[in-house]
Amino acid sequence: MIILVVQIVISILLIVAVALQTQGGGLSTAFGGSGEFYRSKRSAEKILYIGTIILAVLFAAISIGLLYHR
Length: 70
Known about the structure:
By secondary structure, the protein is mainly alpha-helical. The chain has one domain (2-69). The chain contains 3 helices and no strands.
């Protein structure tokens, strides 16, 4: 039961982290529109980027763990 709550919290944090990263860029750049292709990562962006990777790995690990636990 506690693992499910942890997974829900991690999923919400992952959604927020991804939404914060895409807040600056528009959809046109994702589909080949004009825009900056390369941006240097500043400290806050870098922390958010690394945090997103960590949250994604945790979410995947918990999901696989729950799959094999049942």
